[in-house]
Please model this.
Amino acid sequence: MLLWKGGAFFNGIRSIAGQLYNQSRCLQRRFVSSQDSNERDWNADDVIRCLQGARNVVVLAGAGISTPSGIVDFRTPGTGLYYNLQKYNLPYAEAIFELDYFFSNPKPFFTLAKDLYPGKYKPNVTHYFCKLLDEKEKLLRMYTQNIDGLEKMAGIPLHKLVEAHGTFSTATCTTCLKAYDGQEIRKQIFADEIPKCTVGECKGTVKPDIVFFGEQLPNSFYKHVEDLSKAEVLLVMGSSLQVEPFASLAEMVGEDVPRVLLNSEPVRSFVCSDRPRDVLILGDVARNIRDLTEKLRWKNELETLMRNAANETNSV
Model:
């Protein structure tokens, strides 16, 4: 299966999910509110009770969880990453993550990579909330679309983290496929140089293992897909669920599994759903995570976790 823009091509996980939508069903969807519990559609109070008892929570995270750390998201008009790419004179914004364009002109990607490279930004409350889920032995798996490495910085164990769209931690020569540590090419990238392979006469371009459009997703994405059948709660945080096959993960949990969307705006797979246990918590993701933590009575634990992380960072 390939990473794809939108849903024009995808017949793998999407066919497994088997979720077909039409306009009439979208119009029938009712937003869940704390005042609307008589019909047994779920509300925030149900989410609290479920999270308190759950042992298999799956998190799907997108760019929206990193914006409080200072990283721009991709699609916000006027401020998003794709909007800001205009300065690179690309034929279209997504070209910066396409292999054909990369091979013809890798400079724009490596210029952008300087700003995206892990180390410049720090995790925020949402990342640490996920770490708290792990410490409470509730986190089954965290799938992230992000390539900023903030989940790892927050302490999410590698065996529970699926970086679905790749990582800067490793890199590969596009010619001979020699593997590199991401730190080996970091110096060249920050010196505005194109990283080149050091094997003999190869001289191929060394590309961070970020998943470009049309590339295979990491093996870990497919290895752990069965997690969704075990999920007791699905938390979707800061993702518009527009990129396949990641977006289809949200359709793979059981019909009776609570799905909670924490996002700045609604997304189609929730708005068009007739699942009674879907809950939409819209607005500022970080603020809503703090509210959720307080209702769970985990506020002190979360603050202690963040304070200890800050102290460790300052002592380095």
About this structure: The longest helix spans residues 299-315. The CA atoms of residues 86 and 92 lie 8 Å apart. The chain is about 35% helix and 15% strand.
